[in-house]
Amino acid sequence: MTRPFTGRHMTIILITFFGVVFAVNFTMARLAIGSFGGTVVDNSYVASQKFNGWLKDARAQKSLGWTAGVTLDPDRHVQIAIGAPAAKVAMEANATASHPLGRAADIPLSFVPIAPGRLRSVEALPAGRWTLHATIGRNGDNMRVMETVQ
């Protein structure tokens, strides 16, 4: 003989169901807050006002015809290989390495030439994934590069 389904059974089912929903939502919210690395831009309105200027800078950079390849050497120094037509000309670069999730402080990098068209950072990067924001230039012409290195 089975017992009848009562209000008490329904109450237990509802409390269990909403308890699971609450626990999952709380856990997911906690994980989301704990892994949030920050904002892309502080003020989206101001960024939208600068957008056309960014497009103009991008077109000017593209017209230079420069290319850059970013790698890490075994000692975790960043190396930048600059492609034609700028490869044989002395170039300067500076960069900032930032942790993608913002959990580590940004690391400013300075570069020295190691061969024609090749630069190497003076500072080594700690282990992990880093986003490199570099500015490479000469005589007022600049190229901006953003690469992820591991």
TrEMBL record:
Task: Write down what this protein is called.
Answer: Nitrogen fixation protein FixH
| Record field: transmembrane | 12-33
Q: Which Pfam families match?
A: FixH
Source organism of this protein record: Sphingobium boeckii
Q: Does the keyword Transmembrane apply?
A: yes
Which keywords does this Swiss-Prot/TrEMBL entry list? Membrane, Transmembrane, Transmembrane helix
Tell me the domain of life. Bacteria
